Amino acid sequence: MMDRIITIDLLRHGEPLGGRRYRGQTDDPLSDRGWRQMWQAVDPPTGWQRIVSSPLLRCAAFAEALGARLSVPVQLEPRFMEMAFGTWEGRLPAEICAEDALRLFRFRRDPVAEAPPGAEPLAQFHARCVAAWQELLGQADCEHLLIVAHAGVIRMLLCEVLGLAPSQAYRLDVGNAGLSRVRMEQHGGDWLPVLQFHNRLLPENG
Q: Cystine design at 114: which of 57, 60, 93, 106 (Cβ 3.0–4.6 Å)?
């Protein structure tokens, strides 16, 4: 196996219409503020050669606009869709907490045992995200890539990079239009992943 260094930036979508909700796979577009957050997050561009995006509108619409502006290819990857949140889909955090003040705390502390009813199992969500990640690494050739995705997806990928259990994912904060960077170095068949920075938030995005 040839030696390679691959740089992968992970960008969460900006604010969607309707503000902060457990929207999961509900396909809401970005709000005007969300578009501003995203353009600010990628200014100036940092040499991306390819963009890979969740197919959901709050990611894909911006990825395609950025790809057109930079004249780089855009690939939609269904496995980078957000986790399905079951009965929490589309609900405000305040609505969930009104029924049980500690419900969200328990979920973040133990997203396996305290998952929302009907949600995609965390192990299944992690497996599909990591499968797409590994496939991407297998295809990349010393490139600088941008992944436009969701907080949950970015948490799953960073758990893989850092050797954390998926159940520890909520120890990682991922803000709207937050940007993280992973450097993947390969020698022979061995990879060394390095998190170079995480959740970089610009003033409009905080």
A: 106
